[in-house]
Design brief:
This protein is an alpha+beta fold. Strands 2-3-1-4 form a four-stranded antiparallel β-sheet.
């Protein structure tokens, strides 16, 4: 049995004409989170059904690791790199957390 993990899913609503720009920004991200303790991975998903919806899915060893990153200078620096007009085009619609599961197969 795995030690489990913590998954954060940010459901973003983005102005349709800005979706590709947001995805490009994630592709060109600073990568500061990659070396953060407990970080296990990040994916950005585009909705097939709702063109302005983007999910940011991050996996962490534990919720405490995620919380520490969210309060860190690295997180702030990453967000500071996003141009203001793109930030204005993004709305956090919902933040979901998946906990209490163990990874049983990959």
């Amino acid at each position: 049995m795995d030690d489990g993990m913590y998954v954060s899913v940010s459901r973003l609503r983005v102005e349709i004409h800005q979706v590709d720009r947001l995805i490009d920004a994630f592709r060109a991200r600073a990568g500061l989170v990659d070396a953060f303790p407990g970080f296990m991975g990040l994916e950005v998903w585009r909705s097939e059904r709702s063109p302005g919806e983007v999910l940011m899915v991050s996996r962490w060893r534990a919720r405490a690791d995620f919380t520490a990153y969210m309060k860190s200078d690295a997180h702030q620096l990453s967000h500071d790199r996003i141009p203001a007009d793109l930030q204005d085009a993004i709305r956090l619609e919902r933040l979901d957390h998946v906990t209490g599961y163990d990874v049983m197969a990959r």
